[in-house]
Structure formats: C-alpha cells, structure tokens
Amino acid sequence: MTLKTGDQYIESLRELKTQVYMFGEKVENWVDHPIIRPSINSVKITYDLAQDPEYADLMTAKSNLTGETVNRFAHLHQSTDDLKKKVKMQRLLGNKTASCFQRCVGMDAFNAVYSTTFECDKAHGTNYHENFKKYLTYIQQNDLVVDGAMTDPKGDRGKSPADQADPDLFLHIVEHRPDGIVVSGSKAHQTGSINSHEHLIMPTIAMTEADKAYAVAFAIESDAPGLFMIYGRQSCDTRKTEPGADIDVGNKQFGGQEALVVFDKVFIPNDRIFLNEEYDFSGMMVERFAGYHRQSYGGCKVGVGDVVIGAAALAADYNGAAKASHIKDKLIEMTHLNETLFSCGIACSSEGFKTEAGNYQIDLLLANVCKQNVTRFPYEIVRLAEDIAGGLMVTMPAEQDFKSDLKVPTESGLTVGEWATKYFQGVPSVTTENRMRVLRLLENLCLGTAAVGYRTESMHGAGSPQAQRIMIQRQGNIAAKKELAKAVAGIKE
Ligand code: SF4
Ligand code: FE
C-alpha cells in the first residue's frame, strides 16, 4: 500500500505509544484531544486530497526509488516542475486548512538528507545514502508522516554546542555502541511532532571538530523508549475545550501544532544513522533543509493569506463597506503582497538545479529572499485585515451570549442572545451569526491559534530573519556586482 486514506492515517496514530504531556499532565488519548485533534485533521487532509483525482497531479508523484505513486510529501523532487508543484500543493493546503498542515518539514528533510548523505559518502566513504534510501523507501511504501526536526534549544546563543553549560542544549551523541549510537538532547518548537509516525533529526548549525558529537542525523520512531513530547500551547487554545465550542474557535476543524521533543538517552540503530560526527557536512544539511523550508513558505503562507484576504473581504461585505474605495484598495494591496510571496516561491523553484545525488534543490538566494519577504508581508496583510474587520473582531461577546435564552429584566423582555444579535447585525441580508463567524476566523488567523502558523511563524519558522540575511549576503555576490559597475563606469584598476 503506498497511499493511505485519511481515516487509515488516524487509525495508524492510535497504534503509537507516543508520550505526550500538556498542562502538566500526561495525555493518554492525544488523537481525540480537543486541543490536539484539529492539528491532526490538518495532516489528515494531506492524505484525503491525495485520494482525490482532482488533486492527484499536485498531491502525488512517481517515486524515483520504487517507481510507484507516492504522496508528494514523501517524494524526492525530480525536476523544477516537481519543485513548483510542491509550492502549489502547499498553497492548496493553506487554502483548505487556513493553518499549518505540518507535513512539509518531513518532505524538506528527506530532500536535504538525500543529497547531503550522497556527498558525505563520497568524501568520507560512509554508507549513509544507502541507509537513507532504504529508510525513505519504507516511509513511501507505508505512506508515513515524518517530522523533520532541526532546531535545538540552543541555550546561550553566544556559545557553541560544546561550550554550553548544559551539554544537552544541543542534541548530541552520548555513547557509541557496535550496533548504533545513544543520543540525548531535544528539538524545540517542532511542527507536527506528535502526529508524526517518525522523526528525522538533523543538526541545527554548521559545526567545527570540537562540536563533532553534535553533528548527528538519524531517524527514530516517535514512540521510541526515552523519547517524549511537551505540547506547545497557543493563544486562545482552551477555547477548544469549552462545551459546544464552534464559532469562537474561529477554525473548528483545522490547526497547527508545535512541541518540545525530548531525547533522554535514546538508542539509534546503525541503519538509521545518516550523519555520525562528520561535522564538515553539518552546514550543508542545515543550509539545504532551511532552503527548502524557506521555499515552502512561498506556498503555505500564501495559501493561508488567501483565506485572510477572503475573510477580510467578507467582513467588509457584511459591514456594508465593500464599495468604499479604501477597502477595495486595501484588498488590492493584500493581494499584491500575497502574490509577491507566491512569485518568490515559484521563482526559487524554477531556478532549481540537480544535486549530485539526482534530486532537485531550489535556488538558495531566491529561497532566502522568499522567506525574508515572508517575515514582513503577512504582518502587513494582517494589519490591513484588522483595519478592514473593525474593532468588533476583539470586542464581540462570547458565542454563549449570542445563544443565551436568559431574559434580561427590562421593558422589552428580550433575552441576552436577542440583544446581542440585534446590536451586532450588519447589513440586513446577512445573519449576525455569519458576521461573527468571519470575524472569529480573522481573530484566529491574526492573533489566535492559527497566528502561530501565520504570523509569528512567518517571522521565525524556517529560520529567523537574520538567518536569511546571512545567506543573502553569502549568495548575493557583491564582488561580481562591483565588477559590473566598474565595467560600465570605465574604471580600470
Ligand atoms: Fe508546512 Fe508551512 Fe507548516 Fe512549514 S509552516 S510545515 S511549510 S505548512
Ligand atoms: Fe514552519
């Protein structure tokens, strides 16, 4: 079986013994937990859409490893066309979920580890590429979700991994055994870690010889002994636990998920190791994974941005303000910004190239420019959306008030629900409930649970802005530009 259904994915999660902690307690049934389940639904739809002929071209691909049809999230990109389809698939999923659908980190890790292990083997005579091909074949054939995990907690930012007061602040090898290695440490703010079957761990920065115990990449089952996760809470998350939670949640069905993933002396067998102290390849793996994930943001954030723009336009309709020229202009500006991000995602894909291993890599400079723009434009899109929505987005009474039958002891004898409904009516043709729904969706996207995936993740996900600026400086080739200027100006030195 190479393509699971969404329901089969959910059932497969129930078989895992993944250890999850939240609000100071162990969560036994995390699959059905009201705070976690929406994030699982976002991954489920990556399976559901792959079954739909309408989306087959974007959602599936032919594996270069097995020749079979696989979910694109488990695919090694074989052309620039594959790279572009990846971005379009992410936009599609952003449209459908209005949140982070999490499965991209694994896809980006597969492609980075595949090409880096090939070049590492060539330099060091290691066998990581074959290990990885075998591993990815297993993942593709079982259509599994893998959390690509890179970011260590990092402790004191002024110190290297080996110089930290607590050596575990970067994940590292604590023991070498004939049959494998033992690792300790953690990976922080891991997208989609709980609902992944497996984890693919990579180092977080370029390393020197002193840090070689930290230059480690491997795969591990999410429920392996010694591995556990502490759930990251999100703004307004407990609204999901309110009785009958619906409208106030903003997006009842879908959400994103982040967690701290902890490794306390976890054993990794030899055939699941893809880097083992070859510190000179740590930087390559980081750069390639980060590059792919910076490309990804030109798809997923654009897809969610489409929903933000649509919600803002609906809010304007419901307020009776849609014809105002400044509203039209703000929607144009939001669209311009959003499509600029998409252009970056497509551009770095179109300019992609074949790696030595044979899969395709994006243009690194353009992918970093893409992500740098993502650290800015969604903030402006959200600012304009809040402008259009009006203050009611954050001052509206609770869903329970709108539904309340409690009579207010005044002359008219109306209930709390009737009063709230009366005074929050916009244009007469639209129900107050629909107006509430779109404003709560915007609240969710701008500053609620989805803001994790749309706003703040736009800043820090796939690397904070300064990380892209370093790459832009490295790739920008100012020296060649100086030569251009000299030639045009007639300067001979
Ligand atoms: Fe995918 Fe975007 Fe979430 Fe990253 S932030 S996992 S690219 S949806
Ligand atoms: Fe992300």
What is the annotated CATH architecture of the largest domain? Beta Barrel
* The CATH C-level class name of the largest domain: Mainly Beta
CATH superfamily of the largest domain: Butyryl-CoA Dehydrogenase, subunit A, domain 2
Strand order of the largest sheet: 2-1-10-11-7-6
CATH topological fold name of the largest domain:
Butyryl-CoA Dehydrogenase, subunit A, domain 2
The profile of the biggest β sheet is: 6 strands, mixed
User: How many E-type strands?
Assistant: 14
What's the SSE blueprint?
Layout: H1 6-14, E1 20-22, E2 25-26, H2 37-48, H3 56-59, E3 60-62, E4 69-71, H4 80-97, H5 104-124, H6 128-142, E5 146-149, E6 172-177, E7 180-191, E8 198-201, E9 216-221, E10 227-231, E11 258-269, E12 273-276, H7 282-319, H8 325-350, E13 353-354, E14 360-361, H9 364-374, H10 377-389, H11 392-395, H12 399-402, H13 416-423, H14 432-447, H15 451-460, H16 465-475, H17 478-489
Parallel strand pairs: 1-10, 5-8
Antiparallel strand pairs: 1-2, 3-4, 6-7, 7-11, 8-9, 9-12, 10-11, 13-14
Helix pairs in contact: 1-2, 4-7, 4-8, 5-6, 5-7, 7-8, 7-9, 7-10, 7-14, 8-9, 8-10, 9-16, 10-14, 14-15
The protein binds iron/sulfur cluster and fe (iii) ion.
Keywords:
single chain, 493 residues, alpha+beta, Butyryl-CoA Dehydrogenase, subunit A, domain 2, Butyryl-CoA Dehydrogenase, subunit A, domain 3, 2 domains, six-stranded mixed beta sheet, four-stranded mixed beta sheet, 14 strands, 14% strand, globular, binds iron/sulfur cluster, binds fe (iii) ion
Task: Describe the protein's architecture and organization.
The chain is of the alpha+beta class and 493 residues long. The chain has 2 domains: 275 residues, Butyryl-CoA Dehydrogenase, subunit A, domain 2; 198 residues, Butyryl-CoA Dehydrogenase, subunit A, domain 3. Strands 2-1-10-11-7-6 form a 6-stranded mixed sheet, with no helix packed on it. A 4-stranded mixed sheet has the order 5-8-9-12. Helix 7 runs antiparallel to helix 8 and helix 7 packs parallel to helix 10. It is globular, with a radius of gyration of 24 Å. The chain binds iron/sulfur cluster (SF4) and fe (iii) ion (FE). Iron/sulfur cluster binds next to helix 5, helix 7 and helix 15.
